Recover the amino acids of this structure.
């Protein structure tokens, strides 16, 4: 059996090449299944491999309607960061959902035959995907592949943020780019669990969106009063842990500064080293690719680092990971429901107009790939 899939290649002379290829589907091993993929979201984490630092404003299309090819230059300053993947054709797509059409001989594999499952298995922008049963999450009867397509990256990231807050001794959270699908999920979880959440957004309409699902604290970076609003929210909530999806620019600095001002308000007095309250910002995305700018005005009790889902799951262990996965399956059509602006085929995913939209990574413009759409 053949499977058509999207592949991404960076050449050593500085070109990104996106194309479709037909590859052989191997027979499943005893503990493996073959999934007919029916839905796979385009997440920001997928775009890191799919497009990377290429200048898509200069992209060119070629090939045929069934097998389109997209070529785009990579700025010379960014090319060294791609050296590890030079001239390798890599499959894309971190997660998705579909129906198990073949199963290995083990009891665990046979139990999934004919069932709809979600999976985090990479290479999900493919018609068919062979994967180990441990990579599958059995969806409840009646849950569609579209509903289960985003079961892993966003929902488990949300639950991971809350678990990290507890593990590290914080009591409230800050989240940036908070009107996203992930941000809305986080607000719902915080509503359910009584956790104070300070949402940072970029547009006035995002404020109203989050207010509509129960958000109490929403700060708009486009407002003239943003920093004052942020400090007021941090003072009231006592939030000392932030997850930043933007990465670049001054936002992490503003968060740390606001936390320090809030901490000093509760414990006034002079301390040449700043407050003793530890303030932590984790960068988990890269919506802003410019440098992270820090002006250290928040003492010495602070940290800035990266946060990724997979290391977090390894940190908490298999039992805790399974508990979180099961919660996602139970609430995939409620707390963890995702909205998509458009469903597209593999070929449509390489259309320049579509790339221009989903590569903006804008709120309300999340695309879903159906790898079996328009393929006989």
């Amino acid at each position: 059996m053949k499977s058509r899939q999207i592949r991404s290649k960076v050449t050593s002379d500085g070109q990104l090449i996106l194309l479709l290829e037909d590859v052989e589907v191997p027979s499943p091993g005893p503990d493996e299944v073959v999934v007919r993929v029916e839905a796979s979201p385009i997440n920001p984490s997928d775009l890191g491999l799919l497009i990377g630092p290429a200048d898509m404003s200069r992209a060119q299309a070629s090939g045929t309607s069934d097998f389109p090819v997209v070529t785009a230059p990579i700025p010379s300053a960014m090319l060294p960061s791609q050296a590890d993947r030079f001239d390798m054709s890599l499959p894309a797509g971190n997660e998705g959902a579909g129906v198990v059409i073949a199963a290995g001989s083990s009891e665990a594999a046979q139990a999934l035959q004919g069932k709809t499952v979600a999976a985090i298995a990479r290479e999900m922008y493919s018609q068919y995907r062979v994967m180990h049963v441990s990579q599958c999450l059995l969806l409840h009867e009646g849950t569609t592949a579209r509903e289960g397509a985003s079961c892993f990256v966003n929902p488990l990231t949300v639950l991971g943020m809350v678990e990290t807050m507890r593990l590290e001794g914080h009591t409230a959270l800050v989240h940036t780019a908070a009107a996203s699908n992930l941000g809305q999920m986080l607000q719902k979880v915080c509503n359910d669990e009584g956790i104070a959440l300070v949402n940072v957004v970029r547009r006035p309409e995002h404020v109203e969106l989050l207010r509509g699902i129960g958000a109490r604290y929403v700060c708009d970076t486009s407002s003239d009063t943003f920093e004052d609003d942020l400090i007021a929210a941090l003072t009231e909530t006592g939030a000392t842990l932030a997850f930043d999806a933007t990465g670049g620019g001054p936002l992490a600095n503003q968060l740390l500064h606001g936390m320090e001002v809030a901490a000093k308000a509760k414990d006034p007095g002079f301390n040449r080293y700043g407050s003793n309250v530890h303030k932590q910002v984790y960068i988990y995305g890269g919506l802003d690719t410019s440098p992270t700018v820090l002006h250290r005005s928040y003492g010495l009790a602070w940290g800035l680092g990266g946060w990724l889902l997979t290391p977090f799951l390894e940190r908490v262990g298999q039992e805790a990971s399974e508990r979180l996965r099961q919660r996602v399956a139970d609430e995939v059509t409620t707390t963890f429901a995702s909205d998509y602006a458009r469903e597209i085929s593999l070929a449509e995913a390489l259309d320049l107009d579509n790339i221009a939209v989903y590569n903006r990574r804008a709120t309300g413009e999340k695309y879903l790939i159906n790898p079996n759409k328009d393929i006989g």
Remarks:
- Residues 251-266 form the longest helix (16 residues).
- Residues 249 and 310 are 26 Å apart (CA to CA).
- The first strand starts at residue 2 and ends at 10.
